[in-house]
What we know:
- This protein is α+β, with helices and mostly antiparallel strands.
- The protein folds into 3 domains: 5-236, Heat Shock Protein 90; 243-376, Ribosomal Protein S5, domain 2, CATH 3.30.230; 504-639, Four Helix Bundle (Hemerythrin (Met), subunit A) (Up-down Bundle).
- Helix content is 39%, strand content 19%.
- The protein contains 21 helices and 24 strands.
- The strands form 4 sheets. A 10-stranded mixed sheet has the order 1-6-5-4-7-3-2-8-10-9, with helices on one face. Strands 17-16-19-18-21-20 form a 6-stranded mixed sheet, with helices on both faces.
- Helix 9 (354-377) runs antiparallel to helix 10.
- The longest helix has 24 residues, at 354-377.
- It is elongated, with a radius of gyration of 35 Å.
- The protein starts with 5 loop residues before the first strand and ends with a helix.
- Adenosine-5'-diphosphate binds next to helix 2 and helix 3.
Amino acid sequence: MSPKTETLRFQAEVKELLGLMIHSLYSHREIFLRELISNASDALDKLRFEALTKPELLSGEERLAIRLEVDAPARTLSIRDNGIGMSHDELVHNLGTIASSGTRKFLEAARAKGDAATPELIGQFGVGFYSSFMVAAEVTVETRKAGEPHGWRWRSKGDGEFALEEASGVARGTTVTLALKPVEDDQDFAEPAELAALVRRYSDFVAYPIEMAAAHFKERGDLVKSTAPDGLEVARLNSMQPLWSRPKDEITPREYADFYRHVTHEYSDPLETLHFKTEGGSEYTALLFLPSERPFDLFDPSSKKSHVSLYVRRIFVMAECEELVPSWLRFVRGVVDSSDLPLNVSREILQKNRAMAQIKKHVTKKVLGALGNLAKERRADFLTFAKNFGGVLKEGVVSESGEGGERDALAPLLVFQTTHEDGATTLADYVARMRPDQKAIYVLCGEDRERLARSPHLEAALAKGYEVLLFTEAIDEWVLERLREFEGKPLAALDRGDVDFVDDAAKQELDGLDREHRGMLESLEQKLTGSVARVRFGARLVESPAALVDEPNTIGRNMARFLAETGRPAPERRRALELNPEHPVVRRLIELHKEDPTSPKVAEFTELLHGQALLAEGSPLADPGRFSKLVGKLMLSATS
Ligand code: ADP
């Protein structure tokens, strides 16, 4: 070494970090490249910024670029930029003696989790420049600060100290040269094709060209090739097109669609594109898409809860970032590019970050706004959306405790099956069609539309000309529990005992009937002990003799099913058998009971009525064999 060489020791924290880097068996060592390219890109940004006030730093002609160079026999890889560069003191500070806040946070997290957690933390934090020691036995940094005459060489094996010396003939900017460790896991960082793939994967949208000697890519017709200012024929490895950073009015629908296909790997066009920028508050640009097709794993509990990637100043930070959108917007695809988040952010930091929370809230508002417009302006597309993703949106109503007013914003976007000829409707359209005398938004929950359409519970409502929403999705019943009302109209389930359409006079009549036949009703209740809590007369039926209705405040069918499926104790579902006093079969039952209350016929009639009510609503019979035997007996007696 020349006599001018200084040897300096790494700060304790940096040394600790390097120890972890070198010894951790980390499977994503490749991220070092992303980190070094990010640093290079930042250095170019800084130069461009400085040159705004010091134009002598950068001639208008000069091309800002990042160059990768490999020397396969020597097994070295260099990452070169012609950016701002570092002075002697900056080198000492930045690369060794002062641990960055990122380093400190990383170490805190690593210590808290025990060193076993380090590999995963490296992936999250990146930890910048020091990541290079995962792949390099020795790292050399040659740099010259813009506007300074002398360059410097920094060199270290990551073993506790680094050497620093003046270097002549160094161009403005920084070159980081890695003496690569032997190939591990078949991943050779001296292999141009491997590097090209990594650039494509992690740094595609970096705003500067990332170039490599074209000689490595003779076969690749898809790469843009040109002659660099130093005369070298180079191929560009990144597309360099952060579409979202371009002005909206210069982007064609086709470009948006291509980008959509690039990020989603879909073949279709997006249903809707949202491209917006915020000013004030947390600054960010978003390019988001509503897909036109439903992914197969939308409801798979193990699938990702977000499909939005986070970029910071055009540099990719994190795919599937859950801090950007609530899980009930997991169908949204695209990119959020923040201007003021740090680049090396971990999930933990993101979770606590206020700017991030603001972005999430704002993105949510924007997406809901776009859906609102879709509902208003492109009805058919909106219904397609609702068919594909409406169920996910409903999770928002169920999961949010109303904070941020999101439930209010969500409610108008929900689409339900309906008895109306349109087949499906929003709540607002339903309300607009309500009859003047109609007090509530009527709802019936069940498994499928066809079965519900035949349900006896619908009879009286339909007879009165009321439209009924058919809640067929599993989540609908939860929506019912949470939503309660819309535009001041209560949501009322028709199979609940407290919902009927009787006026006071009819109610009195029913009460009279009930009193008159109390003895019979009680004996029926006794016969059906264990199956129903009550037998009574009701006015909700027109054509059917009997129906089962939930008693007020009992748990609903889906809820009971959910609790059973998840092995949780469910309170008993209290139901009543409601008889239609006008129906000939019920009248006959009353007569039979009057003639001989102990007759086995009364018992059989009761059982059959209960079975019919179960079948009509699509519920299973407790004992189908017995039911069919009773029906057979009845057939014979009717024909003999
Ligand atoms: P971070 O990039 O998160 O700050 P690093 O450890 O990667 O952490 O880098 C530390 C600092 O070193 C950077 O903030 C920057 O000031 C400086 N630096 C790193 N690489 C370069 C480069 N290529 N050109 C100029 N400065 C650089």
